[in-house]
Amino acid sequence: MNGTPNPPVKPETLALIERLISFDTTSRGSNLGLIEWARDYLKDLGIASRLTYDAAGNKANLFATVEKGNKPGIVLSGHTDVVPVDGQNWSSDPFKALLRNGRIYGRGACDMKSYLAVALAMAPRFAAADLKAPIHFALSYDEEVGCVGARSLLEDLARNDIRPAGAVIGEPTNMQPVIAHKGKRSYQCCVRGKEAHSALTPQGVNAIEYAARIIGYIRHMAERMRDCEPRDHGFDVPFTTLQTGVIAGGTAGNIVPRECIFQFEFRYLPGADPEALEREIKDYAERVILPEMQRTDPGTSISFETRAEIPGLDTGEADEVTRLAQALSRNPSSSKVAYATEGGLFQRAGIPAIICGPGSISQAHKPDEYITLEQVALCESFMERLLAQMCAA
User: 217, 369, 232: which is closest to 302 by C-alpha?
Assistant: First the structure.
């Protein structure tokens, strides 16, 4: 890594940040290079790992445990995948960490390989310490495309009766404890109509026009939530949101389009009912739109596919994991965020979770993504206090 580090950040942490960024773990590809490297790194410290693979065997989660004490332990959890750099105007190689003016640049520097590097840099000290409870490391795949990998990781823990006391999900929060985030559901809708020459429009079923009516209804629901849903002002957007993000259809301007596919999502407050939102959209499509289409052609159809389902996180201010994160971060406040994380999956699996990690989410997914050395140092201090806490517990 080029440049001279500021004194607060340990050289071993910087070396690990550099190493992790060097793995191109874009979600569309494999993360096995990073996972196998982390497995071997931990193995050399006497720390055993469990790997759970995707169906193709091209990606894996890692769950490793410093086996100490006889109480439930704490999970240090983060995802290994990163978003693409395609089309982004980077001023340096995104997979080569660059230290400049107190910042580390590179894809994943903020989201969230620096957190993983700090945790792994502490592994030798965790392994040597007289811990009263275990420390676990959880590294997942495909968080960026729907929190895919964490599901099989958590299923494996449940099958093997591994029940940690809590999890710290190291998404970038500027080291402020985050106790809640919205849930997310995303869908793809396919409207199949009937092609016809545009001069004979009444003989066709225009898939784009009927899809537009469903999209308009989703927009109507969004406005209703904006105007009528009880607010939670802990969130920057204090109500449930719905939006359509992608649409494609049609062949030519003089052909009644046979097919239209669009993708939509909603991000809902903790306590909101995502099933009810889903049912309302499907009911409108099946009760109002589909009969109109099938009066012209009974072979027309509307189908929905769930693309992602991420539960919200809703951890209490007084919960033990919240108090722990506040003590370790020396930050007595807490906040809520609109973006989704794996924390909701941990909570649904019965593992209390808090979101707390270095860096700002405003830097995530951008060209020239970076994290400041100050944030890395704050995360190191967090881990130092965790070590002391686990030895004293």
Answer: 217
